Amino acid sequence: TGVGLVTPAGNDVATTWNTLLAGRSAVAPIRIFDASGFPVRIAAEVKNLAPAAVEAAIGDRRLLKLANRSHRFALVAAAQAFADAGIRPTPETATRWGCVVGTGMMGVTYDELAEVQRDAAPAGELEPDRLLTARGSAADPLTFCRSQSTAGSALLTRVFGIRGYSSSVHTACASGGQAVGTALKLIRRGVADRVLAGGFDSMINPVG
């Protein structure tokens, strides 16, 4: 069994665990967007996740355009878990590996929503015909792909060569825990020998 973590308390298992043992808070002023207009301007964000760590985890840089912020957390944590376990799928074992991951609040980014507003509702009311001539995120199929709860599991199975059972659990805050429970059942029932399981999300944004 291997463990990988990317959390507000640290970008790996050791840092996260030491932060918890020391009782240090992971809450700080919000940095990923301008929160000055909100009554609450603090949150527990994942901080300083190095782009190099994401690129090392994903391998194929062409896939980065499909990965949103939460997907990058998942890819780095999964790479850590495989390294910790000392085992990963091979062409011979790939169909006996499964992947069950949970997501809580997937969606488009605030910037993408704002772009649709500017293009298709400049006066405040949606004008559907303007969506047909939009050039930004409203007309970009990748925006739709990144917003699906299954997008993260698709990236994980592609990057790590998993060819067996795959599922995405979407049950709000219980998603990650339910994914681990589902993985346990798959192994008990003989559906898979090994399963990549866990949860990922990025819920701190002006909408969420």
Average of pLDDT: 90
Low-confidence stretches: none
Distance from N terminus to C terminus (CA atoms, Å) equals 33 Å
String of helices and strands: HEEHHEHHHHEHE
Total DSSP helices: 8
Structural class: alpha/beta
Descriptive report:
- Helices cover 39% and strands 11% of the residues.
- With 208 residues, it is an alpha/beta fold.
- The strands form two sheets. Strands 4-3-5 form a three-stranded parallel beta sheet, with helices on both faces.
- Helix 3 packs parallel to helix 7.
- It is globular, with a radius of gyration of 19 Å.
- The model has no long low-confidence stretch (mean pLDDT 90).
Question: What secondary-structure arrangement, pairings included, does this model have?
Answer:
Elements lengths: L12 H10 L5 E2 L12 E2 L7 H8 L10 H17 L11 E7 L6 H11 L7 H4 L9 H7 L3 H10 L5 E4 L5 H14 L5 E7 L8
Parallel strand pairs: 3-4, 3-5
Antiparallel strand pairs: 1-2
Helix pairs in contact: 2-3, 3-7
Summarize the structure.
This protein has 208 residues and is an alpha/beta fold. The chain contains eight helices and five strands.
Task: List the defining traits of the structure above.
alpha/beta, three-stranded parallel sheet, two-stranded antiparallel ribbon, 8 helices, 5 strands
